Amino acid sequence: MIRFLINRLGGSLVVLLIMSFIIYGLIGLMPGDPIDEMIAANPDLTSEDVAHLKSLHGLDKPIMERYGNWLSAALGGDFGYSRIHARPALEILMPHLWNTTVLMSIVMALSLAIAIPLGVAAAYKPNSFLDYGANLISFAGISVPPFWLALLAIIIFSVTLGWFPAGGMETVGDGGLGDRARHMVLPVMVLTLHTVGGYTRFIRASMIQTLRQDFIRTARAKGMSDIRLLIHHALRNAILPLVTVVALGFGSLFSGALITETMFSWLGVGKLIFDSILGNDFNLALVGLLFATLMTLIGNIIADIAYTWVDPRIDLAAGAGRA
Amino acid sequence: MGWRRHLVRLGSAACAAVFGFALPPSALAGGDLIIGISQFPGNFNPNINAMAAKTYILHMARRPITVFDADWRLICMLCTELPSLENGRAREETTSEGKSGMAVRYTLKPGLKWGDGQPITTEDVAFTWKVGREPLSGVTVLDFYKRILSVEVHDKRNFTLHLDRRTCDFAEINEFELLPKHLEAEAFAKPAEYRHRSLYETDTANPGLWYGPYRVTDVVSGSRVVLEPNSLWTGTPPHFKRVIVTTISNTASMTSNLLAGGIDYVAGEIGLTLDQAAAFRSRYPNRFKYVFKKSLVYEHIDLNLENPILKDPRVRRALLMAVDRKAISKQLFDGYQPVANSVVNPLDTVYDPDVRKVTYDPSAAGKLLDTAGWKTSESGIRRNAGGKPLRLQLMTTAGNRTRELVEQVLQSQWRDAGFDIRIRNEPARVFFGETVTKRKFPAMAMYAWLTSPAKVPRGQLHSSMIPTAKNGWSGQNYPGIKNTQLDETLDSIETECAPAANKMLWHRLQDLYATHLPALPLYFRAEPHIMPKWLKGVRPTGHQYASTLWIEHWRGNKGGGVK
């Protein structure tokens, strides 16, 4: 196990290094920079000012030189300043990361809490009214664009009914737990509806396949109750593919949900990274994207370990995984 | 329907009881004024990074020494009197290098104080100048500060600026953003680190940084800025207990928040576009007060004068004559965005009302094209003697719905006149970052300039301002116009200060622009302000100095009007 972890962590570091180069290069190749935006906001900016600012921010240097400088500083723990926020990149990133993690963790937990029983129930009685209902919810959630769902939620629950705020994270002067929870309801609802469909479909498909297995028939023949059969035998086997899907989604806990964050003015990392890319804020965009990459890699390692817990036949030390 | 409504209310009450949900946010906010803007300021140091969102917020908490008011006239805000040659506060002098310069004397108003009680003095003026001209400090308008050769301090309130050139706008020091020496000197000890160590970034809520009617008391990065009254403000007392400026970048979310009471007012300076606001008004015509303020944003089409077809001034004129700009303004913008006839806004004091106005005249456009050698063909597209079609490429920012709409109308009207217009749009980053700035557009580029009142368009029209690889792509003369008369006029406007003579030169400039047409003027944009009916006293300006500079005159009682 330790050898497996060392190998995977080493590989992850290489991936991170390559990713840092690719991300930096891609952002650097985009035309335009924040100084161009300043020209639009201030007609008194002269050509000399523009040239000076570009030089001050190192925008006149070749991309490789800029990347080399960034990398050597980053290896020393200095991820640099956010150019558009004038603060250290990590200092800007962390509060957004926390907001996103709280939001997305609740969404993921809620989605799984809904999807697992719904998927199991739909698989237990395929082509039943329940199955059709679950499918309808799943496909609606998957196919309806989140921005439209968000807009609908705002119009119904905020504008018409006035139950929840239309956006933001807290009311100025309040900011208590209840107030923050109220602000979280609509984004959580929208994201959960969007996520739950995929998970439900996975669980349903996997359960249907598992329920056709011989060992299920044997267990039934032995007189095992349906509930016990479903939970202790079928679900345990069927959940393995979901572990992979959830692990891949682990990165999204830290990379955010751009559209929902934008619609609800939620201060998440998705919007932050998007804005930093548009604003050519190399340091902030890099730190944000690398963190999301790191978390996805870690999620995959956790998934590998989780396989052994769900299915003890899997031996990580054997290399390929399955014995 | 009644029972359904009751059911909904019952459900709402049940949720409130079970989950402890409270009232909508507007009710919690009490007497606060909540303003929605679409961008969050990247930083708060007034001298570093120019950004409309920052200007809008900081104008509530700081005041420039001089500024253009809502009538586009230069006024004193912190000074007692505008310097002029007549009142003796300005005089010509020779610089140490033997050049023609100016000495301009200002007096700070009495009783000015920073929010921590420290007086605002000429020491702050001298310190600000020192920071401003330091290349490493990251100040945006370094060139403005460098033009000030020295600051001569006479006493606590009087100072003289020695300028490196003699220009007519010597009194205008709107960009001189005062910094509190007693707080910022330490951060400036290492100039290269100043932009990171400035208290405006590290301790934004420090009262000593502010001296307007409000001061910044809370900042949630990316979300909101809270301002509360500054007890040391000596002017008209501000009305609102708190002003909360909240950022909502999505348009639909912004309007939903307005309807739900999450925000009271969508700022015209940095809120919705005109078509979005017009669409909102058509749905809720009586619920809010709508003010469409004509602005200094000049929407136009730059013509690449190196293009063989556009080199001919007859073709350029025909292009303008073949477009019904009045109809575009009326149909697409409800007439709120007036047709532009020159680079100068009709509301500007230097505007020439007799400037040559090109009206919609497709038959005259056709005759001009005939004389230019572009004859009609069977396909409807004109061709020259060599059979080459009258084909031009029109570019603008992709995704900008308003511009794309205008583009389609233009294409259709030009098609009727025999032009074959090919549209190729690019994302704003590419368009502004590469195509326009490096003059890579083959024929026409549609975009907008933001100018100040009576701002000499030297950067856009002088031949020395054509961006090239050699000059590092500096300058904004993207059409590439080289005209001696235009150059001479631009040079003279800056130095000929006698009002009558100066005005004549402005008129000449507008005439030359209308004659040579380096760009096709389309219209001046309007700022759409959507405010609650109870809010009074807001005077939108239409230029880059926001209406919040006069926020102490804003009045209104949330409970007393339609909500």
- Tell me the fraction of residues in β-strands of chain B, as a range: 15-25%
CATH architecture of the largest domain in chain A: Orthogonal Bundle
The CATH homologous superfamily name of the domain at 296-525 in chain B equals: Dipeptide-binding Protein, Domain 3
**The CATH fourth-level homologous superfamily of the largest domain in chain A:** MetI-like
Mean pLDDT over the full residue set of chain A: 82
Q: What is shown here, in short?
A:
The complex is a heterodimer of chains A (323) and B (563). By secondary structure, chain A is mainly α. Chain A is built from 15 helices and 2 strands.
Description:
The complex is a heterodimer of chains A (323) and B (563). The model of chain A has no long low-confidence stretch (mean pLDDT 82). Chain A has two domains: 74 residues, no CATH class; 223 residues, MetI-like fold (Orthogonal Bundle). Chain A starts with a helix and ends with a strand. Chain A has a two-stranded antiparallel ribbon. Chain A has 15 helices and two strands. In chain A, helix 5 packs across helix 8 and helix 14 packs antiparallel against helix 15. With 323 residues, chain A is mainly α. Helix content of chain A is 75%, strand content 1%. Chain B is an alpha/beta fold and 563 residues long. Chain B has a domain of 230 residues: Roll (Dipeptide-binding Protein, domain 3). Chain B has 18 helices and 16 strands. In chain B, a hairpin with a 4-residue loop joins strand 6 and strand 7. In chain B, helix 17 packs antiparallel against helix 18. Chain B is globular. At the A-B interface, helix 2, helix 3, helix 5, helix 7 and helix 8 of A face helix 1, helix 2, helix 5, strand 10 and helix 9 of B.
